[in-house]
Automatic annotation (TrEMBL), chains A, B:
Keywords: Metal-binding. Residues 52-121 form the Cupin type-2 domain. InterPro entries: Cupin_2 (IPR013096), GPI/OXD (IPR051610), RmlC-like_jellyroll (IPR014710), RmlC_Cupin_sf (IPR011051). SUPFAM superfamilies: RmlC-like cupins. This is Cupin domain-containing protein. The lineage of its organism: Bacteria, Pseudomonadati, Pseudomonadota, Betaproteobacteria, Burkholderiales.
């Protein structure tokens, strides 16, 4: 990444991450309207990731999931995404935030069901040995050396 | 903390942290106009802290410092603080961000030299064994079980 030594930068000047997703279809299409600027990585940070994320109309943040070891947090900057947890849907507004404690078992994601873009800050740590679970979908993941390999829950490929 | 099970909340509804600072004088007075809402803690997150922080006119974010183990990140929501690093001062605007890599040795803080409030999101992880250093001031800190004890650099008290 260029500009690593710059003490500060405009978040919008950070180029969106080139790799859109590692999800197989049909999940990849659901996040096609998601754009992540990896702000923490732009400054060489490694203990946590912090992204400026845009969800275009119709996009979701991720397949609804929970983490075993890694905490997650979102702060809404613009737009009105729907947060879905085990408790159901909640409409969020700018200035609202949500935190997802590792190991809680409560799954979450954001959906942009509006006609306007949603922008938010997301934070996640990088605790080793994390496992993500997807209660609503036939999706499982193994992460090896930072590479996400997605399968069906029986271990077979979606192809 | 009440409302830990709420899936989301307005950040401004999180009550500012009661303890203003552990700094001794004359440093405590410099952060008197600083107000931190511990958003991550409000959801029970423990791997990192994320705060909504307000700097009233004249306030600083902290004594200028660097960390040995813990990364830090800020995203400016409102106002124009001055970021001071080893490279000197930089005026920030809303939508700008900065990251401070652990172990870089480059020290930082924010100063509100304007007549308007500054609001920003700050993130820091909780890696064990962290040490903070304060190059500009006669300040040293030892953290034991989460309690910060500040001294002069020779180990004596500021009292």
């Amino acid at each position: 990444m260029s500009n690593q030594k710059s003490p500060a930068r405009r978040a919008l000047d950070v180029i969106p991450h080139a790799k859109q997703t590692s999800y197989p279809e049909p999940f990849a299409s659901l996040v096609r309207g998601r754009e992540k600027r990896r702000l923490g990585d732009a400054f060489g940070l490694s203990n946590f990731g912090v992204n400026l994320t845009r969800l275009k109309p119709g996009a979701i943040s991720s397949v609804r999931h929970n983490h075993s070891k890694q905490d997650e947090f979102v702060y809404i900057l613009e737009g009105s995404p729907t947060l879905v947890t085990d408790a159901g849907p909640t409409e969020l507004q700018p200035g609202m935030c949500a935190g997802f404690k590792a190991g809680s078992g409560d799954s979450h994601h954001l959906k942009n069901e509006t006609a306007a873009d949603v922008w938010y800050i997301e934070v996640g740590d990088r605790s080793a040995g994390d496992q993500a679970s997807y209660p609503d979908d036939d999706l499982a993941v193994v992460v090896t050396d930072g590479v996400h390999v997605f399968t069906r829950k029986d271990g077979s490929s979606h192809e």
